[in-house]
Fold these 3 entries.
Entry 1:
Amino acid sequence: MDKGLARLKSALSGKWMKSTAVHESEKLAEVASYAVSRMILSYMRNRYLTNKFAVAEAKLAHSFFEKEGDGALGTISEELGISVKKENQSDRFVTIHGVNGILFVPLPAYLKFSPRSIDYKLVNRSVSNGFVSVNPHERRRLMEEAVRKKAGEIPQLRGGVPDSIKKAAENLKSDLPKIEPQSTVTFKEGDNPPCMEKLLESLKKHENLNHQSRWALAVYLTARGMSVEQIVSLYSNLPDFNEKITKYQVEHIKKRGYSVPSCATLLSYGICCADCRIGSPLNWKGKVWGAV
Ligand code: SF4
């Protein structure tokens, strides 16, 4: 129980718990602490905390992946639903368990687990015969994403909730952010174009945003007159939020006076999600969603 609680507290502070287990019993306790963390999360039903936990577990898994041999990586990859293959002369693709160089991931698995980043967009990838080529680092990144999704799916606790879980949840509540971050946002429905509204919605749901999305939204909000503090507060919804870095970046955006990216640029980033024909999100005049 103590380890489970510590695991969640580390996740809340944006870190992941380093493994210190040497003996078999210690390793088992670490595995058990993962289960306990999930029980506490299931009882609390707090999306913010669950997303922080999922990101921390994914980063921890990635740190393990980097140390794993090819054979183990292949097995774990299969278990996560990413059956990696390599090119083969006689039979175009064969399942492998670890080969350096270019690897091939089936398109459905790639689409399911690729990070929301411009580098992973299909238009920037080599796709052939239903497979997407990735390098070993990208394969580990897909696996990290698969772990994040898996760790973030918390089933409902069945039966009675043990007192120890309730006590741990009480303990954690005091560590959760006191201010409801989105309370400072005063936009009404229809105030923002669909692309920016979608990013704001993702933030409210504590979902991760890629670098381009964070940057574009911050530039847009700055242009709409939002203060650095308000934007930082809004970004505190992000599961990997770091106040110091976010504040520095938002202040930098304000100081440099970046222009809001055009719709064409946002389209190339994969952020545009409607055909508003206004050239820039700043030209949005409060239309109604159904009309676009
Ligand atoms: S057309 Fe422009 S304003 Fe509309 S969703 Fe796309 S990027 Fe946003």
Note: The first strand starts at residue 85 and ends at 87.
Entry 2:
Amino acid sequence: MTTPIFVWLRRDLRLADQPAFRAAAAKGPVIPVYVLDDEGAKHRRMGAASRWWLHHSLASLAADLERAGSRLILRRGRSEEVLAALAAETGAREVHGLHHVEPWWRNAERAVGKLLDLTLHHGLYLAPPGSVLTGGGTPFKIYTPFWRALQERMPPAPPLPAPKLTAPENWPASDKLEDWQLLPTKPDWAGGMRAEWTPGEGGAAERLETFTRRVARYAERRNLPAMLGTSRLSPHLHFGEVSPAQVWHAVANAGGSVATFLGELGWRDYAANVIHQFPNYGARSYKEEYDRLPWRTGPEAEADLAAWQQGRTGYPIVDAGMRELWATGWMHNRVRMIVASFLIKHLLIDWRRGEAWFWDTLVDADYGQNAVNWQWSAGSGVDANMFVRIMAPLTQSPKFDAAGYIRQWVPELAKLGDAEIHDPGLLRPRGYPAKIVEHTVGRARALAAHAALKAG
Ligand SMILES: Cc1cc2nc3c(=O)[nH]c(=O)nc-3n(C[C@H](O)[C@H](O)[C@H](O)COP(=O)(O)OP(=O)(O)OC[C@H]3O[C@@H](n4cnc5c(N)ncnc54)[C@H](O)[C@@H]3O)c2cc1C
């Protein structure tokens, strides 16, 4: 009897260009295992939108594995305990997986490594986090030099095809996906997500294919929320349904502004590089004094936070973004920057409250990318952005031609003309809220709080 080998899956849910599958398949029969492990004390429990995505991604992977003559074994609990129990059941000792950068996954990797023969491969990023170093051998803190150094190591190795899998003589039992209750039921708020997304390796490949026809015009369209200018690959990349190397090689020869797009993939690697250095980045301001900024708290601040979450701030571009997020689990990057700045500066609410809302509602919620971008918006991060750079939503909205976007997501305003829709003023229809804070008032309050912080 040949001893089977585990492939331990987390957010690397694909068969092609998946080095753990390839290495395991080369050695013997493979048992692919997904362990639902996000209840531990140091784990960040996945948000509701991520759980929705995960359900469908696992269903898709299970179907792909069945077609390849294999199966997906689902178990729930602490990774090391589950894998050790499965080892006792099956006789397997060897585990292959991909390196993950989140602090809880790094803990789990250490724990599994103590009990079983674990081999970790790289495959989630263009380059292994922690491996892109300055001339002095230290990790980069700033994006631009990081990207310059990363590019010197590009292109990534050509993607690997899906391996041929051999089944073990006996399969261990699997949980039923439905029993994990990852999908919302009462109420079922996922209709907008079902309409927008096809989780899984097949859905990712389709998105990538259609995007390769648009990538040449990426630079001119990427900041316009009313256009389909970006790839919308982020949730697929987050769940590992497509590898960044596959994306790189698919677009590299498309011409036009492909370099701008590859630079965004570089931001994804940069975020992982920051988390690798500062595992607590999602919980604490890198510039520690920002945790002492006199952030607003109490009932009024809570009411403002709720208005922001519900898309009822009276700022059409902010409200459109927050409603797009609620309906589809995704928001355009330009609008993410605007709503984040608005929460932190105009409402003077701690960036971590916004980070937490995004974590729960984004289908692409990613510990590194979310934290790096929120700390960038707050000016509290490791990069050079400053708190006092305050985005003006009413200027951003016409500048990036957001009228059509606002009409789509804030239907109360749909009848307003292009000149008024960004700031309805006296034309504000009944049912649409007045501004919760005037721009100049919010701006002055934020600058005063910052000055107080600096004065000590
Ligand atoms: C406040 C805030 C929070 C964010 N939270 C997340 C998050 O939790 N998860 C997430 O994937 N992205 C996050 N982003 C980054 C960015 O908004 C999304 O990656 C992007 O909008 C996804 O759309 P796309 O796939 O069409 O991107 P494209 O423009 O097509 O870019 C391609 C890929 O590059 C990566 N990328 C693009 N922009 C960034 C960026 N600024 N930082 C890091 N990686 C980037 C993504 O993986 C993206 O899929 C956040 C941005 C802000 C301002």
Note: The chain has a mean pLDDT of 97.
Entry 3:
Amino acid sequence: MNPSDKPPVAIIGTGLAGLACADGLGQKFDVSLFDKSRGLSGRLSTRRAQAHTFDHGAQYFRAESAAFQQWLKPFEAAGHVRDWQPRHVTIAADGSKTTRPDGAAKKVFVPGMSAIGKVLVAGRPQWNLYLDCGIDAVEGQAGAWMLRAGENSFGPFEHLVFAIPPEQGLALLPVETHFTPALAKTRMLGCHTLMLGYAAHEAPQLDWACAHFEDDVLGFAAVNTSKPGRGEGFSLVLQTRHDWSQRHMEDDIDSVSATMKARFQALTGASTQASGYDRMHRWRYVSAQVFAATPEQPYLLDTQLGLCAIGDWCLGSKVEDAFVSGMSLATRLGGLG
Ligand SMILES: Cc1cc2nc3c(=O)[nH]c(=O)nc-3n(C[C@H](O)[C@H](O)[C@H](O)COP(=O)(O)OP(=O)(O)OC[C@H]3O[C@@H](n4cnc5c(N)ncnc54)[C@H](O)[C@@H]3O)c2cc1C
């Protein structure tokens, strides 16, 4: 599997943390990337249904660190990243609205949030990419880790990077590491995302593009159509509050959908009758409440074993946190050799 004499590295998970790590490792390593999904980009996810486009994971992101801004530049120049300035409101329990201050510039990947994975991979033919390849087990020992996915086995790898949620990483860890306690203490909360695609005559008249709700059920809504490059079909994304979803994670999806629609109608007066598309996505791992690492070292690493873990949950719960975690680990591994 590794005809080159470069150290072989396996990265499990192709969300932005895994992708940034792979990119940061550059030409010094022989990089293999694995993901259980058919697509890249993890929680930067986009669904298309005829005229409608839904970013049903991350809605937008900020780039506050110089490293992230610099990394994004070529993608911005090529039109894969665009600024987005939505009218942002808070909707109170009585339905009253207040405009929120603009805050830092919001960015989106174009034509959907998942686009970054495809663009990146297209420019990195040297990567060994295995999609639809969920890793079930890790075997072997330091310096020679093997990955098992169903009947298939991959390796040996000198370094193994878990770029997956901490709960899933903990379940795959083959041995006790320095960072096992950090993984064990980090828990992520979930949420439900409802995607509504309206036919032209049904589209509600909303005078905002992003709404934060002061509500027990709903947390956030975005008019996806208002982002650059999303196409014409009016597309609305509704998200629950994490604490509500945590209590309703195993509920029947239709009853969750009905509850979300009722709350949205009550708070905004807008219809949820959407004949173009009407689907729910349940996210088990969205947002960490306790972080596993620190801004000084935003990744987990056991140098003796060659095992590492990265993800937004190392230092926050945002896209930029995932980037910083992955890129910082790459820099560290690059300096180890
Ligand atoms: C609903 C929602 C809304 C959000 N809104 C925002 C927002 O507005 N702004 C913002 O900045 N951030 C937002 N986020 C958070 C943002 O999406 C994340 O911070 C970021 O995408 C995390 O990237 P990551 O690489 O750490 O993890 P992920 O993107 O979760 O990547 C992990 C990858 O690992 C794969 N995987 C898991 N187990 C295995 C296995 N055994 N084998 C192989 N592959 C495996 C998964 O398929 C996935 O692709 C939101 C997230 C969600 C879900």
Note: The chain has eight helices and 20 strands.
